[in-house]
């Protein structure tokens, strides 16, 4: 039997490669002659960087950066195995988890640190970028990120504005004459699973601002400032980003990257599937089965998670697919419609979440073994 093992991480417990090896061990315990291919997967959210590094035998590099409040820090990003692609998670430098509750303030936070990581990768002669926008603490419309790359945002006196969302309202002119020359050949893909536009009651500030510390009053200030900024972009670039689907991601960072970096916005799982060349693999290899998984499988999993993407591809190529989860609950009918054959929980008895997470690798291996013992008996 030839099996593609393509799980996501089990969040807070095991990364995707560890999960895949546990699945592989369970299979080989039953049939040492089975051929297994390991492909760590991700959906564009937390963990995407390390999963894609592992999937391509790439490397993780450390670079100088700043946190959302401009404080010096070291941060990490990934470089693919062929050395051509940088995988950057905005949350590693501009993320909400880097601040405590008292520090959350979208008037002050900036994406400058993420721009520093892009700059570091450009200086390593990398030209292709995958940017994952989840988990931001910012609402600066990506201006900080662009400032780190040499874009200048000038006030009425011709002076550079300071870092932070509160200064977006002061922008009068945008000057790109000092942008890094390396940017000319760079191309950007953004993992963006939200559909919110840049401005308005369904936009970046109103929907995501409160969770980043914005009061009702601050939300209005930020939305008005970003609308004014978008108007200036339209005047100078003849491009309207106000209502572009997904432009509101990461406090408007997606919109600015689209406008200034010609970035391509994609659903996270679709971006990952393209990057790891899954379609080509499924065309060339005669897999008998796919096994995937992630920490929790429920009714929401069908909405763009790794299991959903893998089920759709399995269905497209006529391959049975089994999914393992730390828990399996709720109505999975949509996953079955997408192609899922069956889903199994890895827990084998009464246990709390902490116990399951601490023993996830062992539990994954044991459940995979039991599944394949059943498969082997049926195929006798």
From TrEMBL:
Coiled-coil features, chain-numbered ranges: none
Signal sequence extent: none
GO molecular function: kinase activity
Family annotation (Pfam families): Gly_kinase
Keywords attached to this entry: Kinase, Transferase
Family, per entry: Belongs to the glycerate kinase type-1 family.
Protein name from the UniProt record: Glycerate kinase
